[in-house]
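To assess whether the prediction recovers the assembly geometry, we first specified each molecular entity separately, as shown.
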Amino acid sequence: MKILVAVKRAIDYNVKARPKSDGTGVDLANVKMSMNPFDEIAVEEALRIQEAGGATETIAISIGPKQCQETLRTAMAMGVDRGILVETEVETQPLAVAKLIAAVVKQEQPELVILGKQAIDDDSNQTGQMLAALLGWPQGTFAAKVTVADGRAKVAREIDGGIQTVDLRMPAVVTADLRLNEPRYVKLPNIMKAKKKPLDTLTPEQLGVDVTPRLTLVKVAEPPARKGGVKVPDVATLVDKLRNEAKVI
Amino acid sequence: MSALVLAEHNNAQLAPATLNAVAAALAIGSDVDVLVAGDGCRAVADAAAAIAGVRKVLLAEAPHYAHALAENLAPLLVAQAGPYEHLLAAATTTGKNVMPRVAALLDVAQLSDIIGVVSNDTFVRPIYAGNVIATVKSSDAKKVITVRLTAYDPAPATGGSGAVEAIAAVADSGLSAWVSEELTKSDRPELTAADIIVSGGRGVGSSENFAIIEALADKLGAAVGASRAAVDAGYVPNDYQVGQTGKVVAPTLYIAVGISGAIQHLAGMKDSKVIVCINKDEEAPIFGVADYGLVGDLFKEVPAMTEALSK
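The predicted structure of the complete assembly is given in tokenized form:
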């Protein structure tokens, strides 16, 4: 079985994003970019299934500008066998990304596609679900544990009240939540090896997918700022202020 | 113009989150209908029909709707979508699971986690962990939307007199099956509905030590939350997590104990009315958003606070 894993180049999780001063977009000039953290977890899960003998090949796919090659190389340095870049300068939104991945799925015929549950830039949390819909496959979203056997995927999902387990007929889509695994660190020799792994580049046109955005950004703004608070010297003062100043207890 | 809201429920009771989603639908200025899909869930449909402002309730009952599986709910929503311009659900794990599947089947974009309505096609939503607020316009004929609960006060649960109309189920997809659920049991208020929340972070140190957080919460009648670090370390279950990818909360009072205040945690609680933090590191970013900060050892200060509240 082949596993396809989707990786997005996104703002590094330690960086605080800010709107551009003219409100036309987010200021990403000279901002550190990394693999979306949830996608690292997705890659790790694919590799663990492969290393346990559950998959013959793992393929990473990324969609976006040329720089996404770096994200794919990171996935390959972690251990993924090869990469596919669908190169476009258009701002790709989840529906278009899902269509592009679906087109590649038809070519590559994986039994399992793993994605991060959400990207930390647009915080959409949509692509995996949309991909499953387009393929007519089941979806194990917000996965905390995945067990693949006999053409079924059992997925324990993080839900609002606790954990829900579902049983999916494969092929299936899984989206990774935080507790699925702890991604490995990339070792230097593997970064060198990853440079030699195959990386194919496709275009949306070759895949026959219209990536025209359906959503237009009208403007961006800073969230309302919180007023600076005060430090209190002790618990007695704190309780007094909560009771008599803020009047919340 | 009309909107269809997907009701969230456990077949016996309507989840309060549905009321917030109805409020957002009413804010668009639409006639609002509610879809209740479940198994033996007539009481839920009656509750939905009683929500103030609801025009009618569509009720689909079948065994394969019992657990809100996306593979079965999405085709049902699509089958009913015809007359509606807006399809909404609360941005809970159920809404987040189902609605993008609906959007893709309809070949439209989804607007996730909206916090404001500008017009019938333009909405406000937080991006980048809430550090940027985006206003976004949809060019699609139908808008699929999930609603951030903290942005809308719930619509009144009573006062409505909508009719309940039974609709046909769509056949079981056969793609997925529900196996089991382990739900956290607690007598405390639910995190997203609580007036007061006491949250613990990595600084709490262990599952056993969370008892001091719980004691303070119980004294205040509060819910207990946690940072990602505390959940990852196994101190508390995953459903305690407050943050960018966990639960987003906006209580009257949020007390952060032993939480440094990473961007991802702040994203989930910075709209709280009053924020208190107790942390031994006075440089911790949490002090930057706290109305009242106490620098000190949480193992001393938290029990002292619990005791002070008893007086």
